[in-house]
């Protein structure tokens, strides 16, 4: 009956990477050196892009990555600034450009109307990549400092443990602060079996509802921080001078720039609080169940429908793109992403099910009726089953996942009616 879709589960073991982020405390000189590296790599990116554009525009010649790799070697022997930057950082720039071009051509082939890769302004260039970080960057024994080629030994935040082996490393400048991001292998740590299956519904009235009756509220996600952010936003607005067209004309005012930075940091703290909370909740969920059932999302299809193609430009593009962004940024999207990642690490099974009509379906008898749903409460018009509306939906999702697993194990057997250990 329900066209369930089995996905994920153990099939996602390929992407077992995790990022360990550590704050850096460079001295003023080191900060200057790092910023110079940002500058040089950004200019390199723009120059490589320019070359590709010009060669194609004027001579219809496609400049390949291999050609530019050779050129880079030649350029380094002439340009002292280029030479001063660690070679592999520059190779990574070329690779980044290559990825941007590949994505561009891929979208072209799909019939979309992509924008040509853009030149990077300094605001949009904030990271240095070391493709073989373990070879380029050395941590001292107690992880107090990390040695960065061309910069020196930079102080690290205390108390963080970077695993002995790591791959790529990025040095990232964010809101005036520096971080080192180490890419590490994520070790599989299967958790002991619990015998439970949990269904999770993206709630209408709460952030998420679990089939065991637990409700995860939105309010817990940094309300106080949000108030602080709003206050800083008002402060910034109060010191902004606008022309008749509404454009800020005192952008360079240092007082305003400081207010802008305070606001950006407050927003970052808000996002961190939201992440911490999602980490905690997802940890509890994954620890407590062997099988986790989630609503299947159709994000990709939606993205495509919003942008449209050359022949059929999308309608209502801005609104749909906005919706997509909300889905991805929303508390639930974040929670979902973390559940999937942790489940993978713990060798738990994630089942994605079609959640259509889950809010109108009775989780005990399966009867579908719009009348059964009365705001926050669900009361089945057929069998009288009553529960919180979102919990009922979570139970339906759980039930559909069990059906899907059953039919996968034994396709011949007709899956029976619903199981019901509902937490009423
Ligand atoms: Zn019922």
Helix content: 40-55%
The count of domains is: 2
What is the H-and-E element order? EHHHHEHEEEEEEEEHHEHHHEEEEH
Largest sheet: 7 strands, antiparallel
Rg estimate, integer Å? 26 Å
Bound molecules: zinc ion
Shape, principal axes of CA atoms: globular
Mean pLDDT: 84
Kindly report the spatial arrangement of strands forming the biggest sheet. 2-6-7-1-5-4-3
What is the helix tally?
A: 11
Strand content: 15-25%
Beta strands, count: 15
> Separation of termini?
25 Å
Instruction: Specify the structural class.
Output: alpha+beta
Low-confidence stretches: 1-14, 300-311, 324-328, 413-424
Textual characterization of the structure:
The protein has two domains: 17-185, no CATH class; 193-218 and 276-409, Nucleotidyltransferase, domain 5 (2-Layer Sandwich). Helix content is 44%, strand content 16%. The protein has eleven helices and 15 strands. It has a seven-stranded antiparallel beta sheet with strand order 2-6-7-1-5-4-3. Strands 10-9-8-11-12 form a five-stranded mixed beta sheet. It has a three-stranded antiparallel beta sheet with strand order 13-14-15. The model is unreliable at 1-14, 300-311, 324-328 and 413-424 (pLDDT under 50). The site of zinc ion (ZN) has 8 residues, from loops.
Which labels suit this protein?
44% helix, 2 domains, single chain, disordered C terminus, alpha+beta, Nucleotidyltransferase, domain 5, binds zinc ion, 11 helices, 424 residues
């Amino acid at each position: 009956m329900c066209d369930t879709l089995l996905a994920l589960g153990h099939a996602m073991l390929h992407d077992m990477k995790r990022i360990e982020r550590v704050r850096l405390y460079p001295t003023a000189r080191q900060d200057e050196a790092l910023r110079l590296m940002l500058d040089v790599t950004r200019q390199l990116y723009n120059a490589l892009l320019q070359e590709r554009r010009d060669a194609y525009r004027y001579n219809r010649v496609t400049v390949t990555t291999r050609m530019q790799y050779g050129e880079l070697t030649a350029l380094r022997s002439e340009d002292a600034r280029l030479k001063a930057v660690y070679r592999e950082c520059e190779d990574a720039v070329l690779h980044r450009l290559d990825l941007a071009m590949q994505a561009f051509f891929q979208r072209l082939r799909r019939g979309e109307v992509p924008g040509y890769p853009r030149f990077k302004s300094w605001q949009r260039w904030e990271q240095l990549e070391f493709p073989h970080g373990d070879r380029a960057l050395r941590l001292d024994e107690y992880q107090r400092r990390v040695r960065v080629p061309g910069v020196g030994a930079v102080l690290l935040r205390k108390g963080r443990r970077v695993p002995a082996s790591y791959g790529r490393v990025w040095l990232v400048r964010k809101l005036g602060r520096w971080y080192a991001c180490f890419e590490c292998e994520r070790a599989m740590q299967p958790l002991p079996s619990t015998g439970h299956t949990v269904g999770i519904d993206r709630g209408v009235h709460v952030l998420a509802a679990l089939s065991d009756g637990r409700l995860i509220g939105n309010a817990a996600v940094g309300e106080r921080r949000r108030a602080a952010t709003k206050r800083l936003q008002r402060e910034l607005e109060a010191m902004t001078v606008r022309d008749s067209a509404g454009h800020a004309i005192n952008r360079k005012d240092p007082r305003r720039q400081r207010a802008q930075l305070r606001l950006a940091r407050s927003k970052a703290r808000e996002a961190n609080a939201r992440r911490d909370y999602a980490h905690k909740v997802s940890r509890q969920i994954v620890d407590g169940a062997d099988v986790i059932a989630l609503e299947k999302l159709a994000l990709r299809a939606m993205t495509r429908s919003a942008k449209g193609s050359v022949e059929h430009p999308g309608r209502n593009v801005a609104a749909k793109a906005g919706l997509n962004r909300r889905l991805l940024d929303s508390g639930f999207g974040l929670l979902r992403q973390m559940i999937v990642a942790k489940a993978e690490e713990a060798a738990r099974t994630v089942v994605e099910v079609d959640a259509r009509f889950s809010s109108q379906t009775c989780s005990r008898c399966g009867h579908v009726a719009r009348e059964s749903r009365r705001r926050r409460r669900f009361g089945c018009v057929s069998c009288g089953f009553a529960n919180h509306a979102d919990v009922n939906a979570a139970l339906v999702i759980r039930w559909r996942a069990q059906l899907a697993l059953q039919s996968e194990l034994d396709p011949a057997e007709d899956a029976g009616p619903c199981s019901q250990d509902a937490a009423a």
